[in-house]
Every structure is written in structure tokens, then in C-alpha cells.
Amino acid sequence: MKISVIGAGNVGSLAAMRIAQEKLGNVVLVDVVKGMAQGKSCDLEDAQMLLNVDYSIEGTDDITKIKSSNIVVVTAGLARKPGMTREELLLKNSEILKNICISIKNYAPEAIVIIVTNPLDLMTYLALKITGFKREKLFGMGISLDAARFANLISKELKVPITEIEACVIGSHGEGMVPLAEFSSVKGTSLLKLLNQEKIDELFKKTVYRGAEIVSLLGSGSAFFAPSAAIAQIVKIIAKDQKQVIGVCASLSGEYGIDDICTGVPARIGINGIEQIIELKLSKENNNLLIKAVESIRSLAKQLPL
Ligand code: A3D
To answer: Is 40's C-beta closer than 6 angstroms to any atom of ligand 1?
Structure first.
């Protein structure tokens, strides 16, 4: 299996490392900056003996090397600066993504594409429109990271191992995300039975602003350890055809009463990409929050260079 990662910055290079070390396929790491992807790939190759793992990784500044990839992950673009919202990245990253999508269409037309560049819901929508790929084959990573952040906060609050937690988040990868207490649980017991509403609301808020908290602590750049782990998880589900249900940013066609917009929903993923979008039975309140998030994505989508 050939897996290309476009963008060899913090998220892309760590994702490439995780994918290579898990032996999910032969990795090609691409960056527009001359020497960067090559340098990082040489460094990653050198780690093989120390880790006692054999893997294949090649770095390049030539995007045509993504030719015939089975999976392409797009992490190219600017990251958020302190105080900057993901939406402010919209115009700059739209231009970067547009050119990359044209290359993917030309050189890797059969690939399953995972978009990571922010603002995620809008970049996934733009990539679908530019490539013309089916929604099954092109979707975004974002909401599974948000669920992992929610799980971490639940684990710390209840002092239970993270492995006992199911956490569910839908909606936009941004301030319009909707953490769902009724679909989150510890060892099968609903979060609603374990925490009062005030505590749950506090965890929701912390989850929504977790990315911004990390951006402000780092001082420059945004999170990369958990995002790269979330990318590697999705790549693994596809490469191993695990048919696992996970949150992804997908184009909706009537599900949840929403049409022609991308946002985070649970989906069953396998070797061919999205196999099924799962429609959760949402409370009226959460349904309204989802619709509100989608309206905001739809209004920003008007600014996309389409
Ligand atoms: P950073 O470390 O700046 O890396 C971005 C890389 O993209 C740089 O090395 C650039 O040289 C490269 N690049 C720019 N244009 C091109 C191009 N045309 N072709 C190839 N490479 C190019 O940022 P990062 O790795 O921290 O973040 C990358 C993107 O992912 C940003 O848009 C972040 O906002 C986003 N991100 C999303 C999530 C989600 O959960 C969705 C999480 C973390 C970061």
C-alpha cells in the first residue's frame, strides 16, 4: 500500500512517522519547502535500527511522487497562531489546498483522501468540489481528535482509565462542535448518570477550547501529537479494512436533514473509505446545535474560491 502525506510540518511529519512505524504502507512525505521532507525522511529512516522495525519512507518536494497512492493525507497549510480562529485560515489555506487537490486528481485519482488542513469542514468541502471525488473517498479528520480530547477530560475528571471511555462528538471541528453526553459512557454507563449537567457543560467547554488552549500554551503553531495519532488511526482503519465506526468530517446528503455540506459525523470506515454514515438519534437541543454549526459552515463556504 502506498500512503502519501502532503505537508511535512509538525502534523504531517509525525503522522508519517506513526504510519511508517506501524508498517501500514510505503510512505511518501511531500513538502513544498525544498529539502524539508527529504531531511525528515532521512532522519526517520535512521531510526529503524534503533526501533528494530523495517519500514519505507521517502521525502520529496515533487508532488508528482504521490502517483498511484492508495491513501493521501493532506496536512499542508498554515497552522493557527494564538488568538486566531480556524476560520481565519480559510483564505490562505484554500489557495494551498486548491493546487494540491488538482495534483491529487491528476496523479492519484484512485486514492482515498483524508483532509487535515484547517478550517477542516470548509477545506474538506473545497477538496470534494475541486477533485470531484465521491464523498466515500474523500473526508476529513477532526472530530475523532475532538472525541479523544473529550475522553481525556472525562478520564481526568472521573479518575478512570481512558480505555474504559467512549466519547462522542459531532459537528464542526471548531467552535460549532457538539459533544454528546448521551452517546458518551464509562464502561457502558452513560456520562449522564456519572456527572451532573453543570460538570458536563464544563467538560464540553474545555473540549471545544482544548485546541485553542494548546495553541496559546505553545505560543506558536498548534497541536500535533494527538492530531497525528488521529490521522494514523484513520489510515490504519482503512489500510486494515477494520470497518470501524469513527467520527469523520463527511459530506452529508440528507443525513441529519443536512445537504451538500461537510461536518463531523460518525461513519463506518473500511478499505474503500466511508461505507456508511451513522445517523444518531439526537435530542432536539443537540439537533439544533448541529444545525446552527452547519449554518455557520454554509455561510463561510460562500467565501471559498469555487
Ligand atoms: P506546519 O508545521 O506549519 O506545517 C505545514 C506544512 O505545510 C509546512 O511544512 C509547509 O511548508 C507545508 N506546505 C505549505 N504549502 C504546501 C504545499 N503547497 N505543498 C506541500 N506542503 C505545503 O503546520 P501543522 O503541521 O501544525 O498543521 C498543518 C495543518 O493542519 C494546519 O492547517 C493546521 O491548522 C491543521 N491541523 C488540523 C488539525 C485537525 O484536527 C483538523 C489538527 C492539527 C492541525
So the answer is: no
